[in-house]
Every structure is written in C-alpha cells, then in structure tokens.
C-alpha cells in the first residue's frame, strides 16, 4: 500500500483520543487525525482546551465531539466511555495520550503521589482499553490502539522512579494485549517520545531547574539538547504526530506489540552523550569537559 492510499483510507474512521484537547501533544494528535479526515471523539480535563479544539477541528473540515473527563477519576473516565458508546457503534482508533510527569527523589515522595503517577501513566490506560474493546471489535475489520509512553520506560530514570515504572508497565501491557488481540487484527503499539516542546509544560523539570537554566541565557536548554540528542535537536510535535499517524494507518498493518521511539536517537544512544571540549560520545565526561568544569 502506498503512502497516499494509506492516508486516504483513514478518512471516515472514528478515533477516540484520551487527553486530546489540550497540551502540545494531545491537541496535536486530535488535529493530526482530523486533518486526515478521521472523526474524533476526545476527552480532556482542560475546559479551555475543550472549547478551543472544536473550532480548530471544524476549520480543517473535520468533525469532533469533545467531552470533559478526568482520567485521574475512574467514574469520570467510565462516564466518558458511556458517552462514546452512546454516540457511536464502533471505534477504529484509540489513542491514550494523557499522562503526568514530575521530577522528585523517591525518598521525598508520598504514597498519594505514587498512586497518582500509577493512575495517570498506567491504570487509566488499562481501564480505557478495556472499555474500548467491544467498540474496537465491532466493525470486524481491525483497529489500532496507540498508548503514549516514554524513553523512561526503558532505562533507570532516577528522580522519575514511579513514573518510569508505570510507563514500563504500560509498555509491557501493550505487548501482551497485542498478542491477545492479534487474531482480531487489532494492533496495539506504543509511541515513546523523549524531550519535546511539550516537556517544558508538564512539570518534568522543577521551577528551580528552569531558573538555573535561565541564568545561563535563553539558549542554554538548546545547548544541553545538543549534548543529549544525537540529531542535535528534539523532535517537533509535528514529527511525533507523524509517528502516530504511521501507527494508526494501514502502512503499519503488521506492526503490533512494538514501541516506536520518536526521539532523535536518544534511545539508541543509551547514555552516550556528546561531551564538549573534544571528549565526544562517552557515557561520562573525559579530560576536556572535566578540565572545563574545574576551571
């Protein structure tokens, strides 16, 4: 199947996007699907985002039904899925994009924070997939689920311990569900991004982290990215959405149980940073960088 044919085939499909009305990525997913002619049913807990996304989708010639729901609350998410079931007899695409990340030493966290991180990054996805399953099976023609995860699901992400564990659970849940649903031609995949423009808006870094970077000048964060991301820049939101569109289109008809890393190469490098002062790619700085730091 060619690229144009695959994208034309998306027109008329029905997608549910959990967390699809606000934020760089969630809003981008909804607009990206709408641009392809997909009818979107989205939920979010951001009322301003809900109000704004409707005219944006309509300006693209698309159709959207936007609902207020909080994935942190089981009853609220169930009520949204009740509304989806009443509105449509089938779902072709499910995207679970909502999430929450906050940087803390594990010793400084609480059980309430642990429960929040697990709910927001794993448990609601299980609930959403379970509620969606009858609708995903309804057409008998297959469907696609994409669960947003992260590079932190694949490495020892200190100061993100419970978040990383929850995302790892999502990743393996996705693999297992892909095996169960293979005969139904319901494909289940993960999309793992890393540093994007959205990262600055979701409390991944604390206020003091941004303050220290600000003291170094407005280009400091970009300079840090050059050490960390092999491509020397993070993926744009649009490039993340391109990955999503691949996973939900017929171009990936036999891709299931996989994680697509849209990250500029950081998951390939696994900690090999491009240190300055002539040190080059190594897990730890060598003489050039250390001399600079000591100076």
Tell me about this structure.
The protein has 295 residues and is α/β, with parallel strands linked by helices. The chain has one domain: NAD(P)-binding Rossmann-like Domain (Rossmann fold, 3-Layer(aba) Sandwich), CATH 3.40.50.720. It contains 11 helices and 9 strands. The strands form 2 sheets. Strands 3-2-1-4-5-6-7 form a 7-stranded parallel β-sheet, sandwiched between helices. Strands 8-9 form a two-stranded antiparallel sheet. Helix 2 (24-35) runs parallel beside helix 3, helix 4 (74-87) packs parallel to helix 5 and helix 5 packs parallel to helix 6 (161-180). The longest helix is centred in the middle third of the chain and has 27 residues, at 111-137. The mean pLDDT is 91. It comes from Novosphingobium album (ex Liu et al. 2023). Keywords: Oxidoreductase. Belongs to the short-chain dehydrogenases/reductases (SDR) family.
